[in-house]
Amino acid sequence: xxxxxxxxxxxxxxxxxxxxxxxxxxxxxxxxxxxxxxxxxxxxxxxxxxxxxxxxxxxxxxxxxxxxxxxxxxxxxxxxxxxxxxxxxxxxxxxxxxxxxxxxxxxxxxxxxx
Length: 114
Prior knowledge:
Blueprint: E1 19-23, E2 40-47, H1 48-58, E3 65-68, H2 77-83, E4 85-92, H3 94-113
Antiparallel strand pairs: 1-2, 2-4, 3-4
């Protein structure tokens, strides 16, 4: 069983939307995370192509630390195949977080047109 990281609902079918969040440093889930005043934590779940677009954009940002979980881990292959999605997280400057959110929003807007 695979659980959506944002809604905590079970994903029984491939969900083509991109879920994205910029976490506030005051959010309770951030307790214990070393504070970095110039960067923000982002996380989400999206189709692999969307996550790769975000990664490509962040590759040009030396202040960004971004990971697509399980991208090179065979243990995640079943989850990716089952849901069509990957989970990602990062610590990035605000402008990069906003650009990543725009990538997800554009993807979701395309889906809404169909």
